[in-house]
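From: lab user (bench 3)
To: helpdesk
Subject: output format question, protein + nicotinamide-adenine-dinucleotide

Hello, I'm new to running complex predictions and I'm not sure whether the block I got back is the full result or only part of it. Here's what I submitted:
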Amino acid sequence: MNRFSGQTAVVTGAASGIGAASALRLAAEGASVVVSDIADEAGEAVAAAIRADGGRAAYVRCDVSSEEDWTALRDETHARFGPVAVLHSNAFIHTSGAAHELPVAVWDREMAVNLRALYLATRTFLDDLRAERGSLVATSSVHADFGLPGYPVYAAAKGGMCALVRQLAVEYGPEVRFNSVLPGPILTEVWNDVDEEGRRLSADATALARLGRPEEVASAVAFLASADAAYITGTNLVVDGGWTVKKDSK
Ligand code: NAD
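Helpdesk reply: Thanks, we reran it on our side. This is the complete output you should expect:
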């Protein structure tokens, strides 16, 4: 498949995990990809891997909570590859702790990186996406739809992303499509702290009885970003191996 031939894509949080898989997938399907993150070395490595494979890619640093960084990202992307048709807003942080114990600064920082970034992404690249009849895909989470003890700000941010995606789809509908993916348990670096037993329990909680791979989310992102999803907008697509539909899985 070469669904993104001649198009430019930007992926945030692309130095590892789902973002890296998305960058590799979009590049493999013909996109010129800006790999963006704050982890410079790992981000450079992802861009280098794409180029080594014959693709077009560059690493550009952007802290997604910073409006100035978004502007610089747009300018650098234009200079290298031209206007953006595909934007995957994926970077995140998460902090655990009960709501009454979380410092306000932690709440604000996590909302800025996880939720406000989607608003900044849209503001920054709307002209491009309109001109290209493009598509934005956000990475939310299944935790947008149910409570998980210890993750109040993560759940609020991810739920907010789903609501914002619906809103943006309606707002800019005729020209730009907005969708999100809601991953379940996907084996990335965020699982490094979870031991074998914890992983097994999470795997068993899915209908498919296994953890997902980042590439399995990337393929959903590529679908939503592509013309194959030309009549899909405002959708929050669950990619969780059947975790949320399995009784007692939560
Ligand atoms: P990851 O830690 O591998 O990747 C996250 C990336 O975001 C990192 O490269 C990190 O450097 C980058 N990042 C952090 N703060 C940033 C900032 N301020 N600006 C720019 N980049 C920043 O994690 P992942 O598992 O690949 O997660 C990707 C997305 O998938 C996230 O939105 C996460 O909420 C979502 N998700 C993951 C899972 C899972 O089980 N892995 C489940 C549900 C949702």
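A quick orientation on your result: The chain has a mean pLDDT of 96. Let us know if anything else is unclear.
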